[in-house]
Amino acid sequence: MRLKNKKVIALVEHDFEDLELWYPVLRLQEEGAKVHLVGKEANKTYVGKYGVPAESAYAFTDIKAADYDAILVPGGWAPDKLRRYPEVLEFVREMDEAKKPIGQICHAGWVLISADILKGKNVTSTPGIKDDMTNAGANWSDEPVVVDGHIVSSRRPPDLPPYVKAFADKLAES
What we know:
Elements: E1 7-11, H1 18-30, E2 34-39, E3 45-47, E4 53-55, E5 58-59, E6 70-73, H2 78-82, H3 86-97, E7 102-105, H4 109-114, E8 122-123, H5 130-135, E9 139-140, E10 145-148, E11 151-154, H6 160-173
Parallel strand pairs: 1-2, 1-6, 2-5, 6-7, 7-11, 8-9
Antiparallel strand pairs: 3-4, 10-11
GO molecular function: peptidase activity
Domain DJ-1/PfpI: 6-167
Keywords: Hydrolase, Protease
């Protein structure tokens, strides 16, 4: 299992895109990673856009980014809420400074925009936030997955297989 001993933060908030949270979580677990669901509150059930629940193991205030090897930000409408938490933005900034893998898909780019880490980065996202990404200084392209250093970005659920493979590969390298 190539990801044994790797720890990953998977952020949760209501209205996450169900597949964009669970597909990466399950695939990384299959490869041996420990993936912790982290939300505003510990032991709270957050519900995805299509009704799939996710229970947080930890609250934002319970963890330190330095104790983790990577972070995943799911899409859906959750990123619009997640980017309002200072702790989330700090996690993303710390991961960026440490060059640890950051995975973002669909609308998750909003969190990276609010963390102010996209200037000059090559990324993709749902086309719906292309202008937001470019206004933040990113170089946007319409590709299933874009890897720029430690940042792995993707557009939407049909792109999950190449996105999660690229993220797992990056995590295995770190």
